[in-house]
Amino acid sequence: MAVIDVTDLRKRYAGRPVLDGVSFAVEAGEIFGILGPNGAGKTTTVECVEGLRRPDGGSIRVLGLDPYTDGRALREQVGVQLQHTQLPENIKVWEALDLYASFYARPRDWRELLEEWGLADKRDARFGKLSGGQRQRLFIALALVGDPRVAFLDELTTGLDPQARRATWELVKRVRDHGVTVVLVSHFMDEVEELCDRVAVLDRGRVVALDTPVGLVGGEQRMRFTLLPGDSVAGLDALPGVTDVTRTGDRVVVTGRGDFATAVTAHLARHRVTVSDLRIDRRTLDDAFAALTGRSFTDR
Amino acid sequence: MTKLAVVELKLLVREPGAVFSLLIPLFILVVFGSSIEPGDTVLLPMALAIAVGLVGLYMLPTTLATYRERGILRRLSTTPVRPANLLVVQVLLQLVLALAACGLLIAVAGAVLGAHLPTRVLPGALTFLLGTAAMFAIGLLIAALAPNGRSANGIGVLLYFPLAYLAGLMQPASQMPAIVAAVGEYTPMGAFRLSMQDVWAGGVPDPLPLGVMAAYALVVSVLAARFFRWE
């Protein structure tokens, strides 16, 4: 059953279309990524799905409810971590959890969350004194304190150091393992590749691709090497998994899928061909994004 | 809702600004109080006006604008609780703060300085309510218009000093140019001080300053509601 069903979502700001017919469905128990460069419409999409904004057109169902008209019933079952939100400087960690728990009809025990998210020793610390990673863990704990069925996490690791990012990723996997469906908004390719079961790629208010990270990358790899003068690469193109062989002088590029690299190296060894400068590049989501939009991910 | 009120109360107590709103008018009262005559009906109304003005023009807008700036109102709107609840709790708590500041002033003036206190409660209570409503309305308008907590703070301070001057809180109204003093009677703090002086003199407050405060409360709070943004 789809937990979230979005069909032909449209939204304009000051006459300018921000969302131009966005459609996707999120299945129960998955980590669903919404990926795109800044300004692609990611945050507007989730804000419509969360019921914070009213769409101009299209339909949204979350757990069978309309987020805008059935907002109250829905908010009991949904946890949200918003981009750019803070807590009051002087609120203590336990007070924030206790307060947010009181908003829900059937909250989780916040003391458990404190343990689970490694905040037990920060119980009495004020929000203003927490590190970036600790704040992020507190925000996730607050998103989960209502015992939600769906959690929205928006730009979770922006501003964290690499180690804290890795740690946060592990925590997000743990949320999913507890049976919570996770919608992850991100502009980090590596994060989406690492975490998501499926990804909707947004560009200029449209979904330009919707697939698994592996499916998006296409599973293709490229092998490059240099031959000694006079050597031949005949027969490489007939190997299992190889899709293309291009030779330019002594430089050879072999493209293929699956375990083709092993077959290629075995073939070369059998024919006593010595190669140098051997490199294997995997296509990344960055490459996939460039192929989909004709633009590199980092420029807007 | 109860828990929200308890947590917000704790946060208010931890806020240095709240302590200042209690101590500044008290300091003024004590410094000038030592040199006044026992039957004085001017100093305490002035101190009360300063206290209510500080809470309404400084504490209230800074807190609310900071909450919006930090996305706290937005975050609340993703929970089953409406963010309007937080506004209501804040306005009530700031009212309690204004009441506490005035209570402290009256207690210290009565017990320590032996100042004159009015015997009738009702006119004083009415004046307090109207004056607080007028000053809070201005505070809410500042909170509605200020882009963030720091600018709300700045606007509050910037408005506070001219208003306090016009109200005759910096210099006795009798020593101010007549025209300025007359204008001052139509400012919320000036009307509050005048009414409170009537109350302290033992009479019923003049309807004009009461009407001035009611008009500010009504018109400015409608404007504040019109311009308020949740994010």
TrEMBL record, chain A:
<keyword id="KW-0813">Transport</keyword>
<dbReference type="InterPro" id="IPR050763">
    <property type="entry name" value="ABC_transporter_ATP-binding"/>
</dbReference>
<keyword id="KW-0547">Nucleotide-binding</keyword>
<dbReference type="GO" id="GO:0046677">
    <property type="term" value="P:response to antibiotic"/>
</dbReference>
<dbReference type="InterPro" id="IPR003593">
    <property type="entry name" value="AAA+_ATPase"/>
</dbReference>
<keyword id="KW-1278">Translocase</keyword>
<dbReference type="InterPro" id="IPR003439">
    <property type="entry name" value="ABC_transporter-like_ATP-bd"/>
</dbReference>
<protein>
    <submittedName>
        <fullName>Multidrug ABC transporter ATP-binding protein</fullName>
    </submittedName>
</protein>
<dbReference type="InterPro" id="IPR027417">
    <property type="entry name" value="P-loop_NTPase"/>
</dbReference>
<keyword id="KW-0067">ATP-binding</keyword>
<dbReference type="GO" id="GO:0016887">
    <property type="term" value="F:ATP hydrolysis activity"/>
</dbReference>
<dbReference type="InterPro" id="IPR017871">
    <property type="entry name" value="ABC_transporter-like_CS"/>
</dbReference>
<dbReference type="GO" id="GO:0005886">
    <property type="term" value="C:plasma membrane"/>
</dbReference>
<keyword id="KW-0046">Antibiotic resistance</keyword>
<keyword id="KW-1003">Cell membrane</keyword>
<feature type="domain" description="ABC transporter">
    <location>
        <begin position="4"/>
        <end position="229"/>
    </location>
</feature>
<keyword id="KW-0472">Membrane</keyword>
<dbReference type="Pfam" id="PF00005">
    <property type="entry name" value="ABC_tran"/>
</dbReference>
<dbReference type="GO" id="GO:0005524">
    <property type="term" value="F:ATP binding"/>
</dbReference>
TrEMBL record, chain B:
<keyword id="KW-0472">Membrane</keyword>
<keyword id="KW-1003">Cell membrane</keyword>
<dbReference type="InterPro" id="IPR000412">
    <property type="entry name" value="ABC_2_transport"/>
</dbReference>
<dbReference type="InterPro" id="IPR052902">
    <property type="entry name" value="ABC-2_transporter"/>
</dbReference>
<keyword id="KW-1133">Transmembrane helix</keyword>
<comment type="similarity">
    <text>Belongs to the ABC-2 integral membrane protein family.</text>
</comment>
<feature type="transmembrane region" description="Helical">
    <location>
        <begin position="12"/>
        <end position="36"/>
    </location>
</feature>
<feature type="transmembrane region" description="Helical">
    <location>
        <begin position="125"/>
        <end position="145"/>
    </location>
</feature>
<keyword id="KW-0813">Transport</keyword>
<feature type="transmembrane region" description="Helical">
    <location>
        <begin position="208"/>
        <end position="228"/>
    </location>
</feature>
<dbReference type="GO" id="GO:0043190">
    <property type="term" value="C:ATP-binding cassette (ABC) transporter complex"/>
</dbReference>
<keyword id="KW-0046">Antibiotic resistance</keyword>
<dbReference type="InterPro" id="IPR013525">
    <property type="entry name" value="ABC2_TM"/>
</dbReference>
<dbReference type="Pfam" id="PF01061">
    <property type="entry name" value="ABC2_membrane"/>
</dbReference>
<keyword id="KW-0812">Transmembrane</keyword>
<feature type="transmembrane region" description="Helical">
    <location>
        <begin position="42"/>
        <end position="65"/>
    </location>
</feature>
<protein>
    <recommendedName>
        <fullName>Transport permease protein</fullName>
    </recommendedName>
</protein>
<feature type="domain" description="ABC transmembrane type-2">
    <location>
        <begin position="7"/>
        <end position="231"/>
    </location>
</feature>
<dbReference type="GO" id="GO:0140359">
    <property type="term" value="F:ABC-type transporter activity"/>
</dbReference>
<feature type="transmembrane region" description="Helical">
    <location>
        <begin position="152"/>
        <end position="170"/>
    </location>
</feature>
<dbReference type="InterPro" id="IPR047817">
    <property type="entry name" value="ABC2_TM_bact-type"/>
</dbReference>
<dbReference type="GO" id="GO:0046677">
    <property type="term" value="P:response to antibiotic"/>
</dbReference>
